[in-house]
Amino acid sequence: MNVRTGLATDFWRETFYGFRRDNGHFLFQRVESDFSAEVTIQGQYEMLYDQARLMLQLSETHWIKAGIEYSDGLPCISVVITNTHSDWSLMRLPADEGAIRIRLTRHHEALRVQVQNPTRLNWLPVRLGYLPPTSVADVGLMCCSPERAGFQVTFSDFTLGPAISRDLHG
Predict the structure, then answer these.
(1) 5-14, 41-50, 110-119: lowest mean pLDDT where?
(2) Do 82 and 61 form a contact (C-beta atoms < 8 A)?
(3) Using the 8-state DSSP alphabet, how is residue 16 labeled?
(4) How does 124-149 read in b/e, with b if 16+ C-beta sit within 10 Å?
(5) Half-sphere exposure of 165 (CA within 13 A, CB side)
(6) Residue 165: which residues within 8 A CB-CB, separation 6 or more?
(7) C-alpha count within 13 angstroms, C-beta hemisphere, residue 97
(8) Around Cβ 2, how many Cβ atoms within 10 Å?
(9) Backbone φ, ψ for residue 72 (5° rounding)
(10) Other Cβ atoms closer than 10 A to 61
(11) Is the pTM higher than 0.85?
(12) Range 2-27 average pLDDT
């Protein structure tokens, strides 16, 4: 799926920047249990904060977005977890690849983000976080471009299924 973002789109709540945005692009399906979602992301990152991710949303005040974000001239792995206020973690990609595969898993209240190492094909842990447990949630593909319009991203090989094993080191 190819997507081109609208102007000044984002999901963010309060922290540091002092504003709320809830107008990013989000194509989702409802889930009623734990799950693992995966997608391969390739984007034409050019402007600060261009981003393409997986997202899980419980409400406008409780969600996670995990994927690739352009920061300081490079695409990075980025995770934002919002429990009323947004936080942000960022790290350089493990390799300079055009496409990156991301996995988001929900184990009840625990959210697990992993990126696939493109050379070894194993999964590297990125973040373990928390959202309140709920009976239903929306999960899917998300992209936005807070500083412009026209960020182009391709999502491919999206899968959504049962949660992977809770084993963190295997």
Answers:
(1) 110-119
(2) yes
(3) T
(4) eebbebebeeeeebbbbbbbbbbbbe
(5) 5
(6) none
(7) 19
(8) 9
(9) 55, 40
(10) 15
(11) yes
(12) 92
Q: How many angstroms separate the CA atoms of 106 and 79, rounded?
A: 14
Looking at beta carbons, which pairs linking 115-124 to residues 24 or more positions away fall under 8 Å?
115/77, 118/94, 119/95, 124/94
Q: Strand 51-59 vs strand 123-130: parallel, antiparallel, or unpaired?
A: unpaired
Residue at 98: amino acid letter: G
Q: Are 62 and 131 in contact (CB under 8 A)?
A: yes
pLDDT band at 93 (very low <50, low <70, confident <90, very high): confident
- Provide the pLDDT confidence category of residue 95 given band limits of 50, 70 and 90: low
Strand partners, 103: 38, 114
3-state SS of 108-149 is CCEEEEEEECCCCCCEEEEEEEECCCCCCEEEEEEEECCCCC
